[in-house]
Amino acid sequence: MAQRLLATLLLTLCATASQAQSYSFGLWGDVPYHKAGDEARMPALIDSINRADIAFSFHDGDIKDGSSRCDDAVYTDALAMFARLRKPVVYVPGDNEWTDCHRINNGGYDPVERLGHLRRVMFASGRSLGRETLALAHQGEPGQPYVENTRFEHRGVTFVTLNLPGSNNNRVLDDKDCIAFSVRGPKQCEAANTEYRQRDAANIAWLRTAFAYARAAHSRGVVIVIQADPGFDLPETDRVDESRLPVYSGYRDFIAALTAETEAFAGQVLLVHGDTHYFKIDKPLYSPTRVLANLTRVETFGSPLAHWVEVTVDPRREQLFEIRPVMVKH
C-alpha cells in the first residue's frame, strides 16, 4: 500500500512539474499563393519553423490564393508541404480552398463538394499532419462532417480548431451575392446557406465542449484557431462597427458564444486567425472602448509576407502567452 501511495505521489509531482514547464508553438497561414510567387519563399519559411524549438504549429487556412482553381492537386500539394514539417502541424480550412471555389476563376466548383473532398483528403486519420504527429480529438469521424474541428490538451492549455472560414462563413446574403463572379445558381446558394447554418451550430457546440473540457481539466488557457477575420471593430473606424456589417453577419452567433464562454472562464483565451494577412495582437472585444481582459487576438502573417508567429506558454507568469513575430529572411 505504501509503495502504491508513493508511486501515485511521484506521478502527481511529475505531472505538476511538466505543466509548470514553458514551451512554444507556431502559427502561420495564408500561404502559399501561387500568383504571388510564394513557392520560392516556402523553403525558407519551413526551414525556419523546423529549426525552432516548438512543440507543434498551426496553419490557419488558405493553402492557395483566391483566384486560382480548386483542383484536387491543391490538397495533395498541401499534404506534401505539411509533410516537410518536422514537428506536428494542425491544419485549419480556409475560404480559398472551399468556400470560394464557386468562383469562375476557381474553376466553378460546388463549395459543398469541395468541402467534402477536403475532409476526406486532409483529415484522413485521427492525427495531425507533419513528420511527427499528434493525436487529436475530432468532432466528426474521418471523412465525415466536422472531422476538421479538433481539440487537444498540452501542459495545462486546451487547444481547439474550428472550420470558420472567410467569405462570411459561407453564408450567401442575397441573389446578387449568389451570382457574383460565379457559375452557381439559387439551388447551390440555398445549399450553401443550409451548410452554413448546420456548421455554425456545430462550431458553437464544439467551442462550448472545448471550454467545458478546459474547466474540467483545470486548464489555465484556451487557444482557439480559426481562419476568418470575423470583422472586429477597430478604433480608427469609430463611426462604423465592422462587426455589424452584412458581410460579417455569418460570424455573429459564434462571436457571441465565444464572448460568453470567455466571460465564464477563469483563465486566458487566445483567438488566432488569418484571412486578412496583417499581423496583429490586440484585445478586440468588447469594443474599442471596453475590453474583455482575458481574451487576446493574434492575426497571423499572410502572402506575400511568408513569416510566422511563435507563442511561448509560461505557466509561471501571470500573462500566460508571450507572442513574438518571427521574420524569415528570403
The percentage helix is 25-40%
Low-confidence stretches: 7-16
Strand and helix order: HEHEHEHEEEHHHEHEEEEEEE
CATH superfamily: Alkaline phosphatase D (PhoD)
Mean pLDDT: 93
Strand content: 15-25%
Q: Give the number of domains.
A: 1
Corresponding CATH architecture: 4-Layer Sandwich
State the helix count. Answer: 8
Can you give a write-up of this model?
The chain is of the alpha/beta class and 330 residues long. The longest helix is centred in the middle third of the chain and has 31 residues, at 186-216. It is built from eight helices and 14 strands. The protein has a single domain, classed as Purple Acid Phosphatase, chain A, domain 2, CATH 3.60.21.70. Helix 7 (186-216) packs parallel to helix 8 (252-263). The strands form three sheets. Strands 4-5-6-7-8-12-9 form a seven-stranded mixed beta sheet, covered by helices on one side. Strands 3-2-1-13-14 form a five-stranded mixed beta sheet, with no helix packed on it. The protein has a two-stranded antiparallel ribbon with strand order 10-11. 42% of the residues are buried. It has helices at 2-20, 42-51, 73-82, 111-122, 166-169, 175-179, 186-216, 252-263; strands spanning 23-28, 57-59, 89-91, 137-138, 150-154, 157-161, 221-225, 268-273, 280-282, 286-287, 290-291, 295-299, 308-313, 321-326.
